[in-house]
Amino acid sequence: MPVTTTTKAPVTVNNTATNKNTVRMWTLVSLIIGSTVGAGIFALPQQAASVAAPGAMLIGWGIAGIGMLSIAFVFQALAVRKPHLDSGVYSYVRAGLGDFVGFASAWGYWLGSVIAQVGYATLFFSTLGHYIPLFSSENRLASAIAVSILTWVIFFMLTRGVKQAAAMNMVTTVAKLLPIFAFLILVAFLGFSWDKFTFDIWGRSGSSGSVMEQIKGMMLFTVWAFIGVEGASVYSKQARTRKDVGRATIIGFFSVLALLVSVTTLSFGVLTQEELTALGDNSLGGVLEAVVGPWGGALISLGLCISVLGAYISWQMLCAEPITLMAIDGLLPARFGKFNKNGAPFSAQLISTAVIQACVIVFFLNETTYTSMVQLATMMYMLPYVFSSLYLLLLTTRGKGMTHPHAGTRFDDSGPAVTPQENRKHLFIAIIAFIYSLWLFYAADVTYLLFGTLLILPGLIPYISQRIKNGDKWFNTFEWVIVAAVVIGACFAAYGLSTGALEL
User: Fold this and answer.
1) What is the pLDDT of residue 1?
2) Quick one: which H or E segment has residue 33?
3) Domains of the chain: which residue ranges?
4) Quick check: 451 and 376 in contact, CB under 8 A?
5) Smallest Cα–Cα separation from 261: which of 215, 217, 309, 225?
6) pLDDT of residue 236
7) In terms of C-beta distances under 8 Å and separation of at least 24 residues, what long-range contacts does 170-176 make, across chains too?
8) pTM for the full model?
9) pLDDT score recorded for residue 17
10) DSSP 8-state secondary structure symbol assigned to residue 85
11) Which of 25, 4, 29 is nearest to 15 (CA)?
């Protein structure tokens, strides 16, 4: 899972500029900020207010800060211990827990990416709907058709080898950061009220539930906001020194954390929790509009549209990456990983685009909201996070992962030795990250957990067929347990859908 494989604006890095030991610390910092701060921040005020009052919101950010920093350091530690694993973060999961768990993580991350793509397109057109009545919330069909057309146009562009230029990245990064900084300055000096922020700081008069319930509600939104924080670790091999990676991770992480906390905190000082909850998907624009008038909302909307549209092309291109990697690594049929004469992974892009189209139809028929798409996508992203944390925990306690069928290959437990002091540090990081990951699953709405298993289930078909073709054992004992859990969860989800007990 490279840094570009995130739900934020992916960062395109010129290969000629990232030769070994040439990436400077501040370049790594920019990778973290660029890949983490994306369109999701524009929806944060409404998302936070929908589940938590100001006090619980701040506690939620504190827990997320500790947890997500530990996850970022998990990937950094694994990059140090397993520098030969270069098929993205999913390769850590495969090396440590076997083929199927690695496959499920990559498959889940791919589907999360697809859902996120639809979510961002929905956010883009709902923002346009404030200015172009054709795309208003009352005319969802027009938005669904527009998303479909945009998706297929981009697909045909990508099959011709068209990629996002570095200039596009620069424009979209500036376009999203300038309105955010304008928001922070204007709201802090013109609109923030301490009395309003503290009026019902624990949400006792609202319907958000207990403080613990509010904190749990914040969890998935905070993960969504932080996806991509492992950016510096991905490029650790090209960094001038390993110390630069650690420093960049800390600087980039706390810069992003400060930005996210500032946005949500200031918003609660402008509008009440109920007023924030009632805002649309571009709630950042709604808050600024309440402070300075319509031009503030228009400014944020413009930044959001440019940011999302600029990232859409790169993100659709990168949706194909997990499929391509799994095909190259033999977990999916080789034809899924083939490139056309223009150097584009045609089959993987076609599959991804077709699934995006199917999601557009399903989400349109079910009137699925952007918030629901975020929560479902985040649940799928959590798979490589929790299993990577478990792998590091196994490495630090028993020196190896689970038994792997391909011992002696690059997926075995080889790697440079670490000192006892380093191992203790990695153990501490792994424990915190693993506990935090489990807490996120506990805090999640069970609906999204069940739908997540339902989305993984179809992947068993190409996976098992490829195992049969290769003459490999389907699953080991540990994997059978995981498969059983997936099937049981999928059955509950299917039953819930058929009876109407579950819906997105």
Assistant:
1) 37
2) helix 25-36
3) 15-499
4) yes
5) 225
6) 57
7) 171/306, 171/310, 172/9, 172/306, 172/307, 172/310, 172/311, 173/9, 173/34, 175/302, 175/303, 175/306, 175/307, 175/310, 176/9, 176/37, 176/38, 176/39, 176/41, 176/303, 176/304, 176/306, 176/307
8) 0.82
9) 40
10) -
11) 4
pLDDT at 472: 84
Closest CA to 112 of 492, 502, 452: 452
Q: State how far the alpha carbon of 380 is from the alpha carbons of 43, 78, 164, 300, 363, in Å.
A: 20, 21, 26, 29, 17
Measured in whole angstroms, the distance separating CA 209 from the mean position of its chain's CA atoms is 27
CATH of domain 15-499: 1.20.1740.10
Listed residue (206, 196, 201, 205) closest to 291, CA to CA: 196
Token pair in block for residue 205: 């008069």
CA 48, CA 371: separation in Å to the nearest integer?
Answer: 11
How far is Cα 457 from Cα 497, in angstroms, rounded to an integer? Answer: 15
At 163, which amino acid appears? K
Q: At 410, is the secondary structure helix, strand, or coil?
A: coil
Beta bridge partners of 19: none
Taking the C-alpha atoms of residue 94 and residue 407, their distance in angstroms, rounded to an integer, is: 12
CB atoms within 10 A of CB 424: 12
Closest by Cα among 50, 434, 436 to 276? 50
End-to-end Cα distance, the chain: 27
pLDDT means over runs of 10, the chain (504 residues): 36 40 71 71 90 93 91 85 73 85 88 82 78 77 86 83 51 73 93 91 80 87 77 59 74 88 95 90 90 90 76 71 84 85 83 89 78 81 88 89 56 69 93 92 82 90 89 85 91 86 72
**Is residue 499 within 8 Å of residue 118, measured between CB atoms?**
no
- The DSSP letter of residue 23 is B
Which residues, listed in sequence order, are joined to residue 23 by a DSSP beta bridge? 239
Residue 479: name the closest of 110, 102, 112 by CA.
102
Tally Cβ neighbours within 10 Å of residue 100.
25
Give Cβ neighbours of residue 490 (< 8 Å, ≥ 6 apart).
450, 453, 454, 456, 457
Two structure tokens written together for 338 = 């083939």
In our burial notation (b when 16+ CB lie closer than 10 A, e otherwise), range 463-492 reads beebbeeeeeeebbeebeebbeebeebbeb
d(C-alpha 304, C-alpha 287), whole Å = 14
Predicted confidence at residue 7, as pLDDT, reads 37
d(CA 114, CA 112): 5
**CA pair distance 122, 126, nearest whole angstrom:** 6
